Amino acid sequence: MLNNYPQSWQRVYQEQGYLQIDPAVRHGMSSISPYVWSGIDKKSEEIPFWEDANFHGIASGWAQPVQTPNGIRGMFTVTRSAELITAGEIRDRMPKLLWLSQVAHYGLAQHLIQRPNSARLNKLTDRELEVMRWIAEGKTSSEIAIILSISERTVNFHTNCAMTKLEAPNRTAAVVRAVLFGLIT
């Protein structure tokens, strides 16, 4: 399990065997829909779990089950320590959270499965890395061309070279891999 929860919560979660009763995990094993929780208004057998989570700074959250085409399953979760998540926030932020969960899961699954040849990674040119940084900022090829004072075709050339070296099927995956491998920040 990869996460950035507080160490104290990870320890309690492990010691108490919470993986077996975690409602978000149970939901994710049988559904592809998000699981949202806010506060402790749960089934009686879950109350100790939620009280411990709250004590360790996890008061509310959103969890999205994800799966790659080759069957690697995971769950992308964002949490809050105090302020509860509102229905309006979920409605407004759901598309971005769904996108982010898919991109993060794909990138992490690829990273865990097989890291590209490190010699190839080290051979990304300065221009390829620069283009990756602009893609990460959400710029299109035509916008990057204007920013860098080069043609759109040249931007696409550098993008395709970076995708090949990163063994990524598309621009988004290339950026995720470049971030995961520490090539761009």
TrEMBL record:
Species per Swiss-Prot/TrEMBL record: Solilutibacter silvestris
Entry keyword set: DNA-binding, Transcription, Transcription regulation
Keyword match Nucleotidyltransferase: no
Superkingdom: Bacteria
GO terms, biological process: regulation of DNA-templated transcription
Entry GO MF terms: DNA binding
PANTHER family according to UniProt: DNA-BINDING TRANSCRIPTIONAL ACTIVATOR DEVR_DOSR
Limits of the HTH luxR-type domain: 117-182
Name under which the protein is recorded: Autoinducer binding domain-containing protein
